[in-house]
Amino acid sequence: MPCPQCGTQSEYSSANPYRPFCSERCRLVDLGQWASENYRIPENNPKPENDEY
Ligand SMILES: [Zn+2]
Question: Which of 8, 21, 34, 38 is the most interior residue, by most CB within 10 Å?
Fold first, then answer.
């Protein structure tokens, strides 16, 4: 099956600890995108007055 991150065809086997990704790198990249999206919460701006600069 294709890796969701880079599209490389990888074996979908239980021997691959990073499935459905092809490697640890792709898995970490995907988790990183996920984390950064969660970090973009609109209510997380304690000092809106800084926009006056
Ligand atoms: Zn990959």
Answer: 21
